[in-house]
C-alpha cells in the first residue's frame, strides 16, 4: 500500500512532461526562409517607405519649378535678328548712282528701304535735269505710286529685267483728301522704278534697255 501511494506522484510528473512536449510543437529550423526576389521587393514598401510614400529626395524633385528656356517663344523657337537669306543692298540707301535708259544718262538717288521709298521726292521744290530717284524692290511685283505733297510732275519708267516695260507722267495731287489722289500702277511686275523730271522720258518706249550696273553685282 505504501509503495503504491509513493509511485503516483512520479507517474503524474511523467505524464505532465509528455503533455508539455506535445504542446510546444517542433523546434524551428536553423535554415532561413528564402528571401523575396528583387521584383517582389519592389512591389512592397520598405521600412523607410511606409504605404508607398515617396522618399524625401523624390518629394524635393517634385517641388522644383522648371526654369523657362531664355528667349524661347510659345513654339520654342526664337526670332532671328536678320531674315534668313537676306543680303544688304549693294548701294546704301541715300547714295547716288548712274542709270542709263537707252542713250539717256541720269544721276539718281537710290531708294531701297521702306522709309525712303515712302518719302520719295515729296517735300522738294524741284528736280534738276539729268537727275532723279531710283526705287529698288526686293521682289518683282505690280507697284502703285501717287503724288501727294509733290510740287512738280515727274516721268516714271517701270523697269523689269533690265528693260523699261512702260512709262507714265505723274502730276502732283491737288486734292484736299489724299485718299482722292490719282494712282499710277506698273503694267506688270517690276523690280525697279525710275522717277525723273517730266518730259525726260518722252523718247523711251517699252523694251528700251535700262543699265543699272552702277548699283553693283546682280544689277542689270
Description:
It comes from Georgenia subflava. With 220 residues, this protein is α+β, with helices and mostly antiparallel strands. Helix 4 (114-119) links the parallel strand 2 and strand 3. The protein has helices at 2-24, 38-43, 56-63, 114-119, and strands at 96-101, 104-111, 131-141, 144-146, 154-160, 163-170, 183-185, 190-197, 210-211. The model is unreliable at 1-8, 18-26 and 31-93 (pLDDT under 50). It has a domain at 96-215: Protein of unknown function DUF192 (Jelly Rolls), CATH 2.60.120.1140. The strands form 2 sheets. A 7-stranded mixed sheet has the order 6-5-8-3-2-1-9.
Features:
Saro_0823-like_sf; DUF192 domain-containing protein; signal; two-stranded antiparallel ribbon; about 220 residues; 9 strands; seven-stranded mixed β-sheet; alpha+beta; DUF192; 4 helices; Jelly Rolls
- Point out poorly predicted stretches: 1-8, 18-26, 31-93
- Mean pLDDT figure: 71
Major sheet summary line:
7 strands, mixed
Rg, rounded, reads 50 Å
